[in-house]
Amino acid sequence: MKAGIHPELVECVVTCVCGAVHKTLATQPTMRVDVCGECHPFYTGQQARFIDTAGRVESFRRRYGLTQDDN
Description:
Blueprint: E1 10-16, E2 21-26, E3 30-33, H1 41-44, H2 56-64
Parallel strand pairs: 1-3
Antiparallel strand pairs: 1-2
């Protein structure tokens, strides 16, 4: 590595909107994030929940003549 071209790393406190606080190394002392590993649906297992807004799946099935068994 070349000397003098890399930014200095400092201890960083990352705060999520869910209230979780994580400590890591970064180039700035504090960060605020919208989603973290404690509240992200992929990590909490809530991504399997399917919300059908305005009956779009049923509308698609009616349009193409599909039934529940035609998956």
